[in-house]
Design a protein that fits this description.
Blueprint lengths: L1 E10 L4 E3 H5 L6 H8 L3 E3 L6 H16 L8 E5 L10 H9 L5 E5 L5 H14 L5 E9 L17 E11 L7 E4 L7 E5 L8 H4 L5 H4 L3 E5 L1 H22 L9 E4 L4 H11 L10 H4 L6 H11 L8 E8 L3 E8 L1
Parallel strand pairs: 4-5, 4-6, 11-12
Antiparallel strand pairs: 1-7, 2-3, 6-7, 8-13, 9-10, 12-13
Helix pairs in contact: 3-4, 8-9
The structure holds oxa(dethia)-CoA.
Length: 330
């Protein structure tokens, strides 16, 4: 037994901050950011929140799947930037869409979160406990970002993506995932009750409350995370392919967490696979953590690039450290 993606949805904030906008906050430039990361713009939540974007993405995914909210058995939300600590984002989504029967909880897997949420959904489906699951990745990283640190603030953006997954009779693929807590300091975010320097909060019609309800600051060893990603991601993809007896050339798309164009190009090169099989949209959205994979999946689903029967690798990597890859058949 397996699980099939039967619908996707996404939602990004209206407000767009381009690289010149970031250069007004820290000493950087459009050309430096584009060259080192492939990012040109990011969407920043001003009137939206992590939950409001999750709600919208969830509604669009249900509509795309032709599934009613009351058919959902489980809602899993991956987020590190929830509007509030409790109730969890998944319960907020349940309330917004009216999925009365669903069990709901959040999962903190950072940039690997959507892959881990899918693996969790798959395990529930394969065990026969649940049949129809909504998985959501939603983030407002602009709330956590230190807008005075050019090493991190150039990277992140806000957005949400969702997918409806249903029980399917085909054989499933076994995922591969790893964690190494001893390397957690490479990317951490801790509470720090002081201004984070993002001027948007002053113009926010909600009085800035959701942007800065708690002040958290992100710290990152950029080069360390880069080296980790270009080593572990090709390895975990090779591992998942080997585990399932699938050859790299059988894979139609490698849909990776959209962290940095150079990371994805390095992964493609190490695997000896054409970079064209690694779709990218970080130019428009930056790194949206657990939302990046479902936003890209939704774009590709809606523009017709994804076709039934295609084999796709989903791979995430990030804070924890965590990394993982899974194979799905569209
Ligand atoms: O979801 C996972 C999240 N994390 C990541 O994906 C992060 C992975 N790492 C990266 O993407 C890259 O390490 C960064 C984009 C963060 C940095 O790029 P880099 O090529 O590793 O730059 P660097 O830190 O080695 O810095 C190179 C130079 C330094 O100047 P000097 O010492 O050579 O004079 C930095 O001070 O670039 C300088 N620099 C900048 N210059 C302009 C660092 N950040 C910036 C900046 N604008 N934003």
């Amino acid at each position: 037994m397996s699980a099939r993606f039967c619908g996707t949805g996404s939602c990004v904030p209206d407000y767009v901050m381009d690289n010149d906008g970031v250069a007004e906050l820290v000493e950087t430039s459009d050309s430096w950011i584009r060259e080192r990361t492939g990012i040109a713009r990011r969407h920043i939540a001003v009137k939206e929140t992590t939950v409001s974007m999750a709600n919208e993405a969830a509604k669009r995914a249900l509509d795309n799947a032709g599934v009613l909210p009351e058919e959902l058995d489980l809602i899993l939300m991956s987020t590190i930037s929830s509007d509030v600590i409790i109730p969890c984002g998944a319960c907020e989504v349940q309330k917004a869409i009216g999925a009365d029967k669903a069990v709901c909880f959040d999962l903190n897997g950072a940039c690997t979160g959507f892959v881990l949420a899918y693996n969790t959904a798959l395990a529930y489906i394969e065990s026969g406990i649940y049949q129809t699951v909504l998985i959501v990745g939603s983030e407002s990283l602009s709330r956590l970002t230190n807008w005075k640190d050019r090493g991190t603030c150039i990277l992140f953006g806000d957005g949400a993506g969702a997918a409806v997954i249903k029980k399917d009779e085909r054989a499933s693929y076994i995922p591969a995932a790893h964690s190494d807590g001893t390397r957690g300091e490479a990317l951490l975010c801790h509470s720090k009750r002081e201004e984070n320097g993002l001027p948007l909060q002053k113009n926010d019609e909600n009085g800035g409350k959701h942007l800065n309800s708690e002040d958290y600051l992100m710290q990152m060893d950029g080069q360390g995370v880069f080296r980790f990603a270009i080593k572990q991601v090709p390895e975990v993809i090779q591992e998942v392919l080997k585990k399932n007896g699938v050859k790299p050339e059988e894979i139609d798309w490698y849909i990776l967490h959209q962290a940095n164009r150079r990371i994805l190009e390095a992964v493609a090169k190490r695997m000896g696979e054409p970079v064209e099989k690694f779709p990218m949209n970080m130019e428009e959205y930056g790194n949206t953590s657990s939302a990046s994979i479902p936003i890209l999946l939704d774009e590709m689903n809606r523009d017709g690039r994804l076709k039934r029967g295609q084999k796709i690798v989903l791979a995430g990597f990030g804070a924890g450290l965590t990394w993982g890859a899974t194979i799905i058949e569209w």
